[in-house]
Amino acid sequence: MAATSCIEVLMYEWSWYQGQRSGTVQDVNREVCNAADRGVAVRVIMHNEAKGRHLGKLNRRTAGALERHGVKVLMQPQQRVLHAKVFVFDGKVALVGSHNISNRSVGSNIECGVMLDDEKAIEKIRSVFDELWARGIKAPQVDAFEAVSQS
């Protein structure tokens, strides 16, 4: 069942693999972009690191790719680590787990996730999301050197 109104995501690491075929984590990336393309309101908050750090580069690259599809992306200010991995679909179903959006998490790590449909639990998750959204910062753009070095 596809989301019809909104998707909200909290993510520590979100990797974008340009050109990867189906059967990889890039399927998740394509589905999120497809949802935004069909009018689903998608908001994402990712962990932020200093410009030169590897994870910061990965997340900024992904932010740029998602934003090209109309996804609204903010970064958690650097004072605290955003280590959550949460998807909320249409405010009705949440996936809460340990997995980042990366080939390593999907292909080789041992990860665990739980699907929730409890209304009160999802209200609490969305409340935390909204609090973080209010304090988030716009994703810095990937500079040309970072873009080339990550291709």
Q: What key phrases describe this protein's structure?
A:
Endonuclease, Chain A, seven-stranded mixed β-sheet, alpha/beta, single chain, 151 residues, 36% helix, 21% strand, disordered C terminus
Explained architecture:
It is a single chain. The protein is an alpha/beta fold. The protein has a single domain (6-149), classed as Endonuclease Chain A (Endonuclease, Chain A, 2-Layer Sandwich). Helices cover 36% and strands 21% of the residues. It is built from five helices and seven strands; from the N terminus they run βαβαβββαβαβα. Strands 6-5-4-1-2-3-7 form a seven-stranded mixed beta sheet, with helices on both faces. Strand 1, helix 1 (26-37) and strand 2 form a beta-alpha-beta unit. The model is unreliable at 143-151 (pLDDT under 50).
Summary?
This protein has 151 residues and is of the alpha/beta class.
The share of residues in extended strands comes to: 15-25%
Q: Describe the sheet with the most strands.
A: 7 strands, mixed
How many domains, as an integer?
1
User: What is the structural class?
Assistant: alpha/beta
CATH architecture: 2-Layer Sandwich
Helix content: 25-40%
How widely separated are the two ends?
32 Å
Q: How are strands sequenced across the largest beta sheet? A: 6-5-4-1-2-3-7
CATH superfamily: Endonuclease Chain A
